[in-house]
C-alpha cells in the first residue's frame, strides 16, 4: 500500500477541510437567503435577477468545490509526480476555471447593481466604475483562456517569453480586479453609512457596522487582500480558486438576506426620510419603484 508523505499530503488535507468549512457556512447563509428573499418578489429586480443570480452563484460554488476536491485527491494519489493527467482531471480543471470566471462576472454584476441602488443614476460614479470592471473582465478572459490552453496536454511547448507574458497578465488582472471590487465595496459602504445617518434612525454603532459589512460585499475584496498578502510573503493560499468562488457568492448572498428581511438601504430611503416616514427600501435595481411593507 502506498505511503503518502505528510509533508505533501497534509497541506492538501488541510485545504480540503478549509474548503468544506467555508462551503458549509456558505450553504447555511444561502438556505436562509432562499427562504427569506421571496418575500420581496413584488420587486421585479429581486424576482427576475437577484434571486436567480444567488442560486447560480451557489451552484457554481458547489460544482467548483466538488471538482477541486477531485483534483486534490488526484494530486495526493500521484504524490506530486509529473505525468500526463487523466482526461477527467483535465475536464475538472477546465470547469473549475470556467465556474470561477462566471462567478466573478455574476458577483460583480450584483455589486454594480448594488452601487446603483445606493448611489442612484450618477454618471460620475457609475461610468468610471463600469470602465474599470470591463478592463478587469478583459484581462480575466485572457488569463483564463491561457490557463486552459496551458492545461490541455499537447505536443506544444511554451517559450519563456510566453510564460513571462502570462504571469504579467495574471498580476495585472489580480490588481485591476482587486481595485474594481474594493472600489465597489468602498462606494457601497460609505453610501450606506451616510444614508443610515441622514435617515435619522437612532441606531447603535454595531447596527450600522453590520449594515456596512453585510451590504457592501466586503468578503471577496477581503479575500483578495489576504491572498495578495500571502503571495507576497511566499505563502501558498489554501485553494484560492474554490475559496474565491465561495467568497464571490457569499457577499451577494448576505446582501440577499438584508434585502429579504427589509433592512437594506438604498438612495430611496432618503426620499422616505424627508417625508418623515422612515422605511428601509428593498429595491436593488429600480429607481422608480419602492416597496413599503
Automatic annotation (TrEMBL):
The chain crosses the membrane at residues 13-37, 49-69, 89-113, 125-148, 168-189, 210-231, 243-261. This is Uncharacterized protein. Keywords: Membrane, Transmembrane, Transmembrane helix.
Amino acid at each position: 500500500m502506498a505511503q503518502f508523505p505528510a509533508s505533501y499530503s497534509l497541506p492538501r488535507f488541510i485545504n480540503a477541510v478549509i474548503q468544506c468549512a467555508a462551503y458549509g457556512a456558505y450553504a447555511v447563509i444561502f438556505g436562509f437567503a432562499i427562504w427569506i428573499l421571496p418575500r420581496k418578489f413584488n420587486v421585479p429586480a429581486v424576482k427576475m435577477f437577484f434571486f436567480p443570480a444567488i442560486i447560480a452563484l451557489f451552484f457554481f460554488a458547489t460544482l467548483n468545490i466538488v471538482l477541486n476536491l477531485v483534483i486534490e485527491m488526484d494530486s495526493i494519489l500521484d504524490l506530486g509526480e509529473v505525468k500526463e493527467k487523466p482526461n477527467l482531471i483535465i475536464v475538472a480543471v477546465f470547469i473549475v476555471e470556467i465556474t470561477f470566471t462566471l462567478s466573478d462576472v455574476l458577483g460583480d454584476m450584483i455589486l454594480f447593481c448594488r452601487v446603483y441602488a445606493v448611489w442612484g443614476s450618477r454618471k460620475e460614479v457609475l461610468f468610471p466604475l463600469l470602465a474599470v470592471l470591463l478592463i478587469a473582465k478583459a484581462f480575466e478572459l485572457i488569463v483564463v483562456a491561457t490557463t486552459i490552453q496551458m492545461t490541455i496536454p499537447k505536443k506544444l511547448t511554451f517559450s519563456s517569453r510566453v510564460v513571462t507574458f502570462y504571469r504579467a497578465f495574471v498580476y495585472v488582472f489580480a490588481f485591476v480586479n482587486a481595485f474594481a471590487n474594493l472600489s465597489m465595496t468602498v462606494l457601497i459602504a460609505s453610501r450606506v453609512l451616510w444614508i443610515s445617518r441622514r435617515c435619522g434612525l437612532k441606531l447603535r454603532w454595531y447596527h450600522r457596522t453590520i449594515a456596512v459589512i453585510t451590504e457592501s460585499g466586503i468578503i471577496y475584496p477581503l479575500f483578495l487582500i489576504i491572498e495578495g498578502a500571502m503571495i507576497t510573503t511566499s505563502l501558498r493560499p489554501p485553494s484560492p480558486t474554490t475559496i474565491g468562488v465561495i467568497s464571490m457568492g457569499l457577499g451577494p448572498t448576505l446582501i440577499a438576506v438584508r434585502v429579504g428581511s427589509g433592512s437594506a438601504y438604498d438612495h430611496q430611503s432618503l426620499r422616505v426620510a424627508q417625508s418623515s416616514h422612515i422605511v428601509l427600501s428593498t429595491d436593488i435595481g429600480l429607481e422608480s419603484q419602492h416597496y413599503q411593507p
